[in-house]
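Exam revision sheet. Question 4 asks you to relate a sequence to its structure. Input first:
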Amino acid sequence: MTDALLSLRGVHKRYGATHALRGVDLELRAGEVLALVGENGAGKSTLVKMLTGVIPVDEGTMSLNGVARTFANAQASQAAGILAVHQETVMFEELSVAENIYVGRHIMRGPFIHWSAMNTQAQAVLEQIGARFNATTLVKDLSLAERHLVEIARALSQKAAVVILDEPTAALSQAEIRDFYGIVRKLRDQGVGVIFITHKFDEIFAVADRYLVLRDGTAVGSGAIADATEQELVKLMAGRAIDQIYPPIASQPGEVVLAVKDLSHPTEFNNLSFELRRGEILGFYGLVGSGRSEAMLAIMGLNPAATGSLVVNGQKLNARSPGDAIAAGIAYVPEERQRQGGILSFSVEHNISLAGLGRFSRGIWLSKLRESELCQRMIERLRIKTQSPDTLLSGLSGGNQQKVVIAKWLGLDPRIVILDEPTKGIDVGAKQAVYQLIGEMVEQGLAVILVSSELPEVMHLAHRTIVMRRGLQVAEFARADAHAEHIVAAASGLGHAPVPSPSAPVFEPEAVAA
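Answer key, structure tokens:
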């Protein structure tokens, strides 16, 4: 490593009275992966927007290859060789993968698009990252994980000098994440400077060479990853040591509140049977595509092709719509909070009251007073950090957005809460707050289904963990018997998974419909 490829010196950014960045210094060398670490609201997104030309620098200097640069817009930043792959994909769904990769810079032959050359070159980039779909495939036919691979392919196709990876693995399976590590290392070996933003410490230590920690808009620590520990990074991020991120769960499971029997779907899952008890956290773990989320959608009446028996509090439930499940006391916090859980352009108050408008209205008239009372109660109960109830949801950090989505459903006083990837894309401090909230929910008598790809979450929080693989319920572990290697073996099918606990039914792979 020689001179800096990219450097920031004394960079400031203000939004009115908010001082988002306070004299930040950053240095990125060619052939290096720099982990940019910090809690939500620390200034990471503001820094990325500066680098990509979305917002200007108020004070300080930005240099690329030793030359001071300013970018009037995102196109100027891309032309200089700085590209970003974001967590939330924005694509043209009716266009092909190749068209999305080369959007705005189509390969031309005279006045016409050179389709064969563009498709061939796009296919070569896709093969480089191990994608299992063709360049001519329409984006609307891709999964969320596959769309992230298209974003990565777009950056690779432009031979960027600096690549910013902003939570790029959030929607990828374990196998795809391992492949992605190889892609990052390949970029580094080619002399590209990579800024890697993630909340997952295992990813930081797997691919990064150095780290820079932001807290409240200030750079509070940097150094070599080889000399750092997870505990040190957490302390720098939060400004305090977090010795125990997972709270003790004091509740003891009581009577059965949900009994699921032979829940099946023609293509997604088969013969799921389990019970959920009052005051219990029941974990669901599995790799991407295991059918966990699809099963939860069926319980909420959002998967009409599903069959099977549901009994809630002793009463049979025929959930043909979400309204049926909600009336039975079931709430569902979806995985994609910004697309399915909340409305970013609505205020905090309107998001919290959205699921229960009937409770605040008389005929066609909405009671503003009752709506405001619920909102204030939920803000206090969940400790939501917002300037006011009228603040737009888009103005909150990821962790507080998640709290608002959870508050929306808790306002209905449910008996059963399904949490699908509740800590996806939020930082360690926000995770701790969500874990504390889950503990409080079950201590108050609610029953929680926790669907998570984060193995430590289900191991530390769940009273029991059900493991799914390829649509099948393959094992169940009590908390005392939940060992990481056993759970992963069951989820992946590698080696021999241990015998499930006696309460867990055993399913054979032949039971799945072809």
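Marking note for examiners. The first helix runs from residue 44 to 51.
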